Amino acid sequence: MDAEADSTQIPNIRHKCPACYKQFKKKEHLTEHMKTSNHSVHQPACGVCQKHCKSFESLREHLTGPLPKGVCSKIFSQRGCQLCLVLFDSPGSLVSHRETCRLSAPTRLGTRELPCIDSQFDCLDSSDENHAGWGPGGAVGMDCEMVGGGSDGSLELCARVCLVDEDENLIFHSYVQPQIPVTNYRYDITGLTEEHLRNAMPLYEVREKILQMLYNGESIGKVRLNGGKARLLVGHDLAHDLDCLKMNYPDHMLRDTAKYRPLMKTNFVSHSLKYLTRTYLGYDIQSGTHDPYEDCISVMRLYKRIRAQIHPEEAHETPSHNIVCVPDSWRSRELENLTPDQLYAMSKSDYKCWCLDLRPRLAS
């Protein structure tokens, strides 16, 4: 009886993650969770309860989903922006913010007969605060439109390409002469016909002009190392566009709205650009035929909106302080003695947050 009485007095201790608030019965389960969750200051977090979410969609469900968090949902409905999910001090501040947060759709180029546009794209001023992290390089947004080749029209052939700078200026536009015959112009989507491509620029020439803009006079070795003066390339599903252009560009210089972790679905599947634009910028695109200029502007706006987030620096910047780098010989023994907050301090994001693009790079 005494043993039973004593057992009833033992508290049911649960170990709570300080980032996502998941609870575990055993400390080692919390430790394993912290090793794989990659919690960091760069994760989307609720402005009310500060809960970390693995994507903006997870955060949106937390605030406005079918089963929202009660207190958080109530406060957010009064002082939160439905687009950027930021919580403001007062309803008045929210009203002022909405005037700039919800954007208007850009004017479409359409498919009228356009000459090849190849502007003189001079280096940006490195003193500009918008490009402080990447010096004179800055970023370039790109979008391609594809037609079909092959017997069934399923081969992806680049037929039109458009590039814009960070100020939404059109810096390059051209129709592209496919390397094999076009068997499906996909007119309902592209709006393109044989006439558009009759005197189009050859693919190799288009590729060289784009690379010249991106490399910005920098050596290939320097670009592969840390970028140098080269420009970041922004787009949606860039791997597809680069493949159709038969073009390579270093992965660390790509900013892809289809592959960026916080912009993906909760199961890490890509959203469409149409969905992202409507959800985070507040307007619709791709109504009817797709317009590469409209898509370019939208991916650039998405990138700049995410890049403008203000995050504190992570507690530990070097990989040696990450939980997964702790030696096996003492990992479990040492980590068991750490508090949940200490475990969180050792955790680190497994993706590069775009806000870091505005921070000065370390000299190579």
TrEMBL record:
Gene3D superfamilies: Classic Zinc Finger, Ribonuclease H-like superfamily/Ribonuclease H. Keywords: Exonuclease, Hydrolase, Metal-binding, Nuclease, Nucleus, Zinc, Zinc-finger. It comes from the Eukaryota. GO terms for biological process: rRNA processing. Pfam families: RNase_T (PF00929). Residues 15-44 form the C2H2-type domain. GO terms for cellular component: nucleus. Its main location: nucleus. The keyword Ubl conjugation does not apply. GO terms for molecular function: 3'-5' exonuclease activity; nucleic acid binding; zinc ion binding. The keyword Methyltransferase does not apply. It is found in: Nucleus. SMART domains: EXOIII (SM00479). Belongs to the REXO4 family. This is RNA exonuclease 4.
